[in-house]
Specification:
alpha+beta; four-stranded mixed β-sheet; 38% helix; globular
Length: 223
């Protein structure tokens, strides 16, 4: 049994399976966090007041794909993102990288009740695009995903997961506080990213073109 939080403009007592945006990070599902303060930031994404909805979930008997537990790597996460989110693929390098990552590193994720992993807010989404275009290295992408202390999201994907969820209550969220915090987090991540880019990558750092040309596979020890 654990607590989850969902930030929204609305009080959502009964999240409905099958509703929502299918082009979110991990596809159609109900996106939550274990951190109430982060849910409050999500509730104020557009500078309007909102609610941090609190839930209890019984996880016993549910299958969970934990993308950050060491069994998986950053390219597994990116492959799922590529399958679900709309990417601006504006160069031959990006198109080739997208297809190679999908073909080689996409895990079998669709049968899981829950998925845990990074949340690709705007700044983090742009870092992924930069990697695909050969603009940053694999090592820089890994470092970029830790900028801004984004934390993780938990996504409910199946009827069983929704059935295990119980509404506890909703806390009103003041956008004059939490929208500013959200924007500050994003700004800080972008500033740290620019600072990272100003540093010369070490000689052993790898670009996506090398991964493709050397035909890295999902079990490559360098990942």
């Amino acid at each position: 049994m654990e607590m989850l939080y969902h930030g929204s403009k609305l009080i959502i007592k009964n999240p409905a399976y099958g509703k929502g945006n299918p082009e979110n990070d991990y596809g159609l599902g109900f996106y939550c966090t274990r951190e109430p303060e982060l849910a409050k930031e999500w509730a104020c994404a557009e500078a309007d007041d909102g609610f941090a909805n609190q839930y209890q979930i019984e996880t016993e008997g549910l299958s969970c794909l934990q993308l950050n537990n060491g069994r998986y790597h950053i390219l597994n996460w990116l492959a799922i993102l590529l399958e679900n989110r709309r990417f601006d693929i504006s160069s031959p390098v990006s198109a080739r990288a997208r297809q190679y990552i999908l073909d080689t590193f996409l895990p079998d994720y669709k049968g899981y009740d829950l998925i845990e992993g990074y949340r690709a807010d705007d700044s983090y989404f742009s870092f992924s695009r930069a990697f695909l275009s050969n603009g940053i290295t694999l090592q820089q992408l890994r470092r970029a995903m830790r900028l801004g202390k984004l934390s993780e999201q938990v996504v409910l994907r199946t009827p069983a997961a929704f059935d295990a969820l119980s509404f506890i209550g909703a806390t009103p969220v003041d956008a004059s506080i939490y929208h500013i915090r959200r924007m500050s987090r994003d700004k800080g991540a972008r500033e740290d990213y620019k600072k990272m880019l100003s540093e010369t990558p070490a000689g052993e750092e790898i670009y996506v073109s090398t991964i493709i040309n050397e035909k890295w596979n999902n079990d490559d020890p360098r990942l």
